[in-house]
Structures are given as structure tokens and as C-alpha cells.
Amino acid sequence: MTLTSQVIISAQIEKTLLELEGLRRSESVIVFISPSMKKILDPEEETPNPPGVQRIVSERESFRVDDAKIVLEKAYLASEEQTIIILAAESFTPIIQNKLLKVIEEPPKNKVFILLTQSKSTILPTIKSRLPITVLSEAKTLDELGLDLKQLSLQSVYDFSQKHKRTDSKTMTVIVERLSKEAMLSDSYNLDAKTLTLFSNAFKALDMGSPASFVLNTLLLKLLARKKR
């Protein structure tokens, strides 16, 4: 690994982040992480950050628009020393990636951007076209989804929605990602632009704080309507 602009795909985000921080020499490193990751990297609240490393913890598990604004503020601060800006999360929603697209495309002087995440599939094509992809390991294998999309019905939608009526937004983001993959692999749906937009809208809704159970139920019902007859 090197401290150059890139997207890094790793099943072990925390371990990879520590390795990236360890590569620092004279650079300044700014890391944006979620609250749960902070507890793993720095379990003792009074423990200072590593020398030359500033860790900024988001208020919620998934990055929000306000977090993107802070990233942009840090990116446009004038500095003569090289600054490495690392964003580490299980996944990045389309709205966050679009907010950062311009600064990634035309980074300010002495600024390097590294996106560290678990799944290549959640990275937008516009980001992939601007940053090289480094795959360190395959993303972790998820538990069985528990929903056969080839046999999707109103009953299975109801049962699955009931099962996840208390699922948090972070976990639901992973479920929605898995649903999108399963739907594409099943060849059971009319996968036109309208269908793919369903998943993009679900990610946006979760990012904006919509109830996770409502997002899931809405997505599945709309997906059911797109099922091949």
C-alpha cells in the first residue's frame, strides 16, 4: 500500500486503516471514521491519536452530508505540506460520493484522497474513473440473506420486512447492497434504469435518515412490481 489517491477495498477496514496510518512519514493525515470504528481503533477515550494523525468521528455510523462538508473544508485549507485525507466506512452512499466528486476530480494542492471501504460494488463509476482501485482482500462474506429473490412474493416481502423491522440504518445499507446484487444475479427482474434507480434511492433515503424498515418495505414492493412475469 502507498499513501496515494485511490480507493482501497478491504474486508478488514480497521486493520488496513492502522497500516495506512503507519505509512506516514512527514505527511499530515486526516481520517474520517464512524463511532463504532473509533471504539475499536481507540478503546481508551483518553488515548491520543498517533503523531501527525487527526481522527474525525462522524456523528452517525453512515457518513452524512454534514460530514462531506467537513471533508471539503479540510481539503480546501491551504497548506504547504502534503495532507492525506482518508475516509473509512463499510460503504459510501451515492449522495456522499457525488458531494466529493469535484474535489476528488480536481484535488487542491498537496491533497491526497483515499477511500477505504469493504465493497467495490458500492463505488460509483464516476469515482472509479477518477481513482485507481486497490483490492486487498475480498469483502467479508455476508450471512445468508434469507430472501429468495427469484421467488419474491407479497408474503415473502411481508415476512422479510417483519424480520427487519428493528434493523438499524447501517445494517440496512448492507442489506440493500446485497439485495441489489442478488436481484442482478437472479435474472428475474427488468433491470432497466428505472429498476436500478430503486436501489440508488434506497441508499439516499437511508443516508437522509428515513426509517430503515420503511425503506426496505418500499424497495421490496417496488422491486416486486418489476419482477419478470
Explain how this protein is built.
The chain has 229 residues and is an alpha/beta fold. It folds into two domains: 6-135, Rossmann fold, CATH 3.40.50; 149-225. It contains nine helices and six strands, in the order βαβαβαβαβαβαααα. It has a six-stranded parallel beta sheet with strand order 3-2-4-5-1-6, sandwiched between helices. Helix 2 (35-41) links the parallel strand 2 and strand 3 (53-57). Residues 138-143 have low confidence and may be disordered.
Q: What is the correct CATH architecture of the largest domain?
A: 3-Layer(aba) Sandwich
Q: Residue-averaged pLDDT, rounded?
A: 87
Tell me, what's the shape?
Answer: elongated
Unreliable spans: 138-143
Helix proportion range: 40-55%
Radius of gyration: 19 Å
Query: How is the CATH topology of the largest domain named?
Result: Rossmann fold
Classification by helices and strands:
alpha/beta
Structure summary, number of beta strands: 6
What distance lies between the first and last C-alpha atoms, to the nearest angstrom? 48 Å
Can you tell me the CATH class of the largest domain? Alpha Beta
| Major sheet size, sense and barrel closure | 6 strands, parallel
Relative strand content: 5-15%
Strand order of the largest sheet: 3-2-4-5-1-6
Could you write a compact summary of the structure shown?
With 229 residues, the chain is an alpha/beta fold. The protein has helices spanning 13-22, 35-41, 65-75, 94-105, 125-128, 154-163, 169-186, 193-207, 212-225; strands spanning 6-9, 28-33, 53-57, 83-88, 111-117, 133-135.
